Amino acid sequence: MSTQPEVPNLLDPFGTWKTMRDASLDIWSKLMIDLVNSQAYSQATGQWLDSYLTLSQPFRHVFETTMTQVLGGLNMPTRAEVTSVAERLTHVEMRLDDLDAKLDDIQRALQALSASKQTADTSANIKEAH
Amino acid sequence: MGFSTFPMTPDQLQSELQRIEEETRTLLRVSTSRATVAQTPKQVIWTLNKAKLYRYIPVVPAEERHKVPLLLVFALMNRPYILDLRPGHSFIEYMVTHGYDVYLLDWGVPGPEDKGLTFDDYALEYLPRAIRKIKAVSGSAEFSLLGWCIGAILTTIYAALRPGDGLKNLILLTAPLDFSDKTAGGFVRWVNDQSFDPDKIIEAFGNMPGEMIDYGAKALKPVENYIGSYLTLWDNLDNPRIVEAWHAMNTWVTDLIPMAGATYRQLIKELYQENRLMEGKLRIRGERVDVSRIRANLLNVIALADHISPPCQSESIMTKVSSQDQRVLKVKGGHIGMMAGSGALKYTWPHIDEWLAARSH
Questions:
Q1: Which of B57, B151, B241, B254 could form a disulfide with B147 if both were Cys (CB 3.0 to 4.6 A apart)?
Q2: A64 and chain B in contact, CB less than 8 A
Q3: Residue tagged active-site, from B114, B121, B214, B306
Q4: Which chain B residues are within 8 Å of A45, Cβ to Cβ?
Q5: Nearest by CB: A29 against B125, B132, B224
């Protein structure tokens, strides 16, 4: 029994569209990868980003100054003050971590001491028994 | 999702409408919800600022476990649960079931107060403290480090600065270390353009916004990331295996976090632009980072189709370190797919396990 070769179904517009889509996607992908890896694209994005940051800087400055004044006026902590508290908390955490490390060291030293004492006691007992 | 051909019988039409309804529900579910990720049982054993150190609950009896604990260090600008994406597709789960005592350092999400954090802090403040805790918990003076992407930069810096700290095995995954080739990949080209100024970005935002990092990563392969990924989902809505994998990966891809501003500046200026690490000019807290001081056993895993860290950025370290025991493993796949894609279980994880098992006693 021979098998019929698969022919595109002209009554299935979605199937035809999918075949066309898959065929063109690879080409698009390669073209776009070449584009984003080009010097022109690097320059264009770099310049666009630079322009955006330069142009938005005065607005950001005004917004930040206003917000600081508003928060100050309302007796609320500003971002800088909250940030400062958070930084201090991290320093406290580090000090606690240092203490934790020292406690671990002390615990290990005590365990070693107690183990060596036990060994000494055991050997003394054996000697006495003999 | 597809459509059957016309004409059809009323029964066929009804079943076709039901299928379309089900697939529409699936599409809505996966595109509007988060998958359940990071399910391997774990406990937090140490925290500092936003960082957390997890220990995964061992499933292999202590006497059968590898003696040397393994610490996983992921990149700073993405969530580390890519290493534990979902049951059956989790590197962490794989390593735990293969008898490793596994720890994961999650850097957390930097806030505005962390904008001043640098590689110096991560490599010489956070990492050594986490390692101290691992030594205390595991009782082992030696340990293995696995660093992925920016995590590989951090572990390389640490290994070079503290070679006598008990580091036995160092595994680097897709490590962006050598930026001498200024034409290798889109990232290098973009950040080396004279109009690109990281200082301006940091001045504007404090930290590098996750959305900008995400755009940078996706723009390297725009068609695949912005169109192809969604077409794959559309074409496979009737395949639960592919749908669930897509859902979990999409959850991770869209879970964006910023990068500490000063770290980003250091990454771009001192590494990408000036290539200080490979040229031996990088200074961390005043100490020169000399990679020739790395003596630990070294496994360098390179993804052949990596467009984020092209292979040439990872290869040259092998000739610069002093490790007597060293191996390069080149695997199929891209920057993330190599470790989290469907082929990872076959092409990557067993090789890492095989190499590490022989050196973890």
A1: B151
A2: no
A3: B306
A4: 190, 193, 196
A5: B224
If one counts every other C-beta atom within 10 angstroms of the C-beta of residue B272, the result is 20
Q: Percentages helix, strand, coil for chain A, rounded to the nearest 5?
A: 85, 0, 15
pLDDT digits (tens, 9 = 90+) for B238-266: 999 999 999 999 999 999 999 999 999 99
Q: What single letter denotes the amino acid at residue B57?
A: I
What distances in angstroms separate CA B247 from CA A87, B59, B92, B127, one per listed residue? Answer: 37, 27, 19, 32
pLDDT of residue A7: 55
Does B361 qualify as catalytic in the annotation? no
For residue B30, give both structure tokens: 């996966």
Longest pairwise C-alpha distance within chain A: 102
**Tokens 């950001």 label which residue?**
A60
The closest CB to that of A83, out of B112, B190, B224, belongs to: B112
Name the most confidently modeled range: A16-30, A104-118, B61-75, B227-241: B61-75
Pairing of strands B167-173, B143-148: parallel
Nearest-CA distance B297 → chain A (Å): 28
Catalytic option among B149, B214, B247, B353: B149
pLDDT at A67 over 70: yes
CA angle, B182 then B185 then B188, to 5°: 45
Q: Which residue has the tokens 């979605």?
A: A14
Sign of CA dihedral B175, B173, B116, B197: positive
Category of B44 on φ-ψ map: left (φ > 0), alpha (ψ -120 to 50) or beta: beta
Interaxial angle between packed helices A39-73 and A79-129, expressed in degrees from 0 to 180 and rounded to the nearest 10: 100
Amino acid at B177: L
- The token pair at B257 is 């976090």
Tell which residue, B239, B218, B215, has the closest CA to residue B228: B218
- The CA dihedral of B119, B125, B128, B130, to the nearest 10 degrees, is -100
Task: Quote the distance between the C-alpha of residue B238 and its chain's center.
Answer: 30
Backbone φ and ψ for B218, nearest 5 degrees, come out as -75, -35
Q: What pLDDT score was predicted for residue B351?
A: 97
**Which of B68, B128, B59 has the alpha carbon at shortest distance from B98?**
B59
Q: Over 80: is that where the pLDDT of B1 sits?
A: no
Q: Calculate mean pLDDT across residues B295-310.
A: 95
- State whether residue B169 is helix, strand or coil: strand
